[in-house]
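R.M. (postdoc): so does anyone remember the format we settled on? I'll just put the C-alpha cells first.
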C-alpha cells in the first residue's frame, strides 16, 4: 500500500485464510464449557449462485473428494438454494465429528477457490445447539474472520444479540472475531443451522 492509498483512505483487501477454519474444533470446546452449546454436525458453504459447466465440474469434484470418505453413508454434500438466491453446499456429519466437518468445509472452499470461484464465496458456517437454541459460527470468506449468529427460537426473524455478544467475548482467544458488528449479517433459513 502506497502513500497515495493512505491519503485517500484506501485499504488493502484482506486475503482469505481458509486455515482459520481449523480453529473451530478448539473453539467448540470453549463454547461448550462456557455456554453449553454443542456441535450439531451440520455445516455449509455459501456462495453467489453460479451456473454453467465449470461450476458443475467443480461440484462433481467436491462430491467425489468427500465421497472418498468410506466411513460416511448417504450423500455427504448437497447443493441447495435459499430464498434469497444464494447457493449452499451443505455437509452433514455426526455431532462428534466436528474436525471432519471442518475438513469438509475447508475442502469445499479450497475447491471453489482453486477452480476460479473464490470471488463468489461468501461465508461458511458450523451449527451448534443448546436445548431449543441454535447458533452458527460464521466464517466470512472475504474478511478472514468469524462471528456468531443466534436466531431466536420461533418463526419470527429475530436474533439473540446478547447471546451473540457473549459468544464473541467467550471465543475472542480462540477465533479471529469480526470486530465490525455491521458485518454480522443474519443468515435466516441458512441450511446447516
Amino acid at each position: 500500500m502506497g502513500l497515495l492509498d493512505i491519503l485517500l483512505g484506501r485499504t488493502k483487501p484482506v486475503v482469505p485464510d481458509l486455515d482459520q477454519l481449523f480453529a473451530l474444533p478448539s473453539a467448540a470446546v470453549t463454547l461448550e464449557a462456557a455456554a453449553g452449546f454443542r456441535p450439531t454436525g451440520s455445516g455449509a458453504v455459501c456462495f453467489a449462485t453460479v451456473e454453467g459447466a465449470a461450476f458443475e465440474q467443480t461440484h462433481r469434484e467436491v462430491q467425489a473428494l468427500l465421497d472418498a470418505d468410506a466411513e460416511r453413508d448417504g450423500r455427504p454434500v448437497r447443493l441447495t438454494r435459499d430464498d434469497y438466491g444464494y447457493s449452499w453446499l451443505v455437509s452433514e456429519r455426526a455431532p462428534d465429528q466436528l474436525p471432519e466437518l471442518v475438513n469438509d468445509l475447508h475442502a469445499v472452499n479450497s475447491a471453489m477457490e482453486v477452480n476460479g470461484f473464490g470471488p463468489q464465496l461468501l461465508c461458511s458456517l458450523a451449527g451448534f445447539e443448546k436445548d431449543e437454541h441454535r447458533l452458527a459460527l460464521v466464517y466470512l470468506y472475504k474478511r478472514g474472520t468469524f462471528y456468531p449468529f443466534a436466531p431466536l427460537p420461533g418463526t419470527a426473524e429475530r436474533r439473540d444479540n446478547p447471546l451473540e455478544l457473549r459468544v464473541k467475548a467467550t471465543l475472542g482467544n480462540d477465533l479471529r472475531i469480526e470486530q465490525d458488528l455491521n458485518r454480522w449479517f443474519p443468515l435466516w433459513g441458512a441450511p446447516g443451522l
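R.M.: ...and that's the designed sequence above, right after the C-alpha cells. Also worth knowing: DSSP finds five helices and six strands in the chain. The helical segments are 3-7, 24-35, 53-67, 98-117, 161-170.
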